[in-house]
Write a structure and sequence with these properties.
CATH class: Mainly Beta
Number of strands: 17
Largest sheet: 17 strands, antiparallel
CATH superfamily: monomeric porin ompg
Oligomer: single chain
Order of helices and strands: HEEEEEHEEHEEEEEEEEEEH
Helix content: 10-25%
CATH topology: Porin
Structural class: mainly beta
Length: 350
């Protein structure tokens, strides 16, 4: 985590320096009827503050190969369904023209359901079968306008990722930290862009990579919302009550899984290993339709195709790069449905 903090603080210091220069620059003399810069643009849907989501990934191959001396050479299997349930909430904790901060909390549970579950005969697969891999998270996101043209966006998130239960939860065993920081330019109310960096598990293992923000509304029908390379979405607006998105999403995560408990407990296969780290990242081509039900209540339907990049298990701790198991996941279609609440129109008019 020392690398995480030192890199984050260095990058934030650089952005703060840029921000100070922007604040000292000459300001536009005609400021009436302007708003301070922020990353939002006209034409996008209203912000969500509470969301329920269910996602299902359909049948696909799940073929594992042992890369460590004690593990069986390989085991071919097939996933029947891979289900993810999620709940999120966002609460404004500071909201004025000069500074905005939002607290977010979330809980996610993922399950793997194998075909022929009674014939798995492979401890790694057996441990994932109907196992609840959980993610309990909290984050703070801030937007700091520097003037009428420039702004800073910062976000820090902590998540407890793993196969824990409530009576054995230990922060040190499961905590994963991610962060991002962006410096942006608001060209006009229809176009903003920015540059920065993100630190997290988008590429499976912890890494730091550049990020480019690009939000633009071209006309009353078309727009684009992107934080490259993580995601790019093209927006088709039918009305202020109906939107269609298509694009891609690059996603990744890391779970810690205890092996000193059933079905791994006292297994000679893993010897003195206590915890393994499951790293997963993939890219999804997606199509999503968002529709208003009633003012503040919306739903969305999403579908697409998942292509897996990596799904491997590693030793944790000092041997983070010691890979134990490689898994080849086949491509698969997926579907998701969201039910969520947005800011009511009446509140926006105040």
């Amino acid at each position: 985590m020392k690398i995480f903090y030192s890199t984050l603080f260095t990058f934030l210091a650089l952005l703060s320096s840029l921000g100070a220069q922007a604040q000292d620059a000459a300001q536009d003399t005609s400021r009436q009827d302007k708003e301070y810069a922020n990353p939002s643009v006209e034409g996008t849907p209203r912000g969500r503050f509470f969301l329920l989501r269910y996602q299902r990934l359909f049948s696909h191959d799940f073929n594992s190969t042992g890369d460590w001396k004690n593990l069986p050479v390989s085991k071919d299997a097939r996933i029947n369904t891979n289900n993810v349930a999620e709940i999120k909430g966002f609460i404004p904790i500071w909201n004025n023209p000069h500074f905005k901060a939002v607290l977010g909390v979330g809980y996610e549970r993922e399950e793997f359901n194998f075909e022929d579950s009674h014939e798995l005969a492979y401890l790694y697969h057996e441990n994932l079968q109907d196992k609840g891999l959980k993610s309990l998270s909290a984050q703070i996101a801030t937007v700091k306008p520097l003037n009428y043209k420039n702004y800073l966006v910062m976000r820090v998130k902590g998540a407890l990722n793993g196969d824990y239960t409530s009576d054995e939860l230990n922060f040190n065993d499961y905590l994963k930290l991610t962060a991002e920081a962006l410096y942006g330019w608001k060209k006009n109310k229809y176009f903003t862009w920015g540059i920065g960096a993100q630190a997290g598990y988008t590429f499976g293992r912890y890494s730091i990579y550049p990020a480019i923000l690009y939000n633009r509304t071209f006309n009353d029908r078309w727009g684009i919302e992107a934080v490259f390379p993580a995601n790019v979405k093209v927006r088709r607006t039918f009305s202020e009550k109906s939107y269609l998105y298509f694009g891609y999403n690059l996603d990744g995560y890391s779970y810690n899984i205890k092996v000193q408990k059933p079905p791994f407990y006292n297994s000679p296969v893993f010897g003195d290993i206590k915890t393994i780290e499951l790293r997963h990242n993939d890219v999804r081509a997606q199509l999503r339709w968002e529709k208003e039900i009633y003012d503040f209540l919306w739903f969305s339907l999403e579908g697409g195709y998942r292509y897996n990049i990596a799904f491997d298990a590693f030793r944790t701790g000092s041997d983070r790069d010691d890979r134990l198991i490689s898994t080849n996941l086949g491509g698969a279609p997926y579907a998701a449905v969201d039910l969520y609440f947005v800011v009511p129109r009446a509140f926006l008019k105040r």
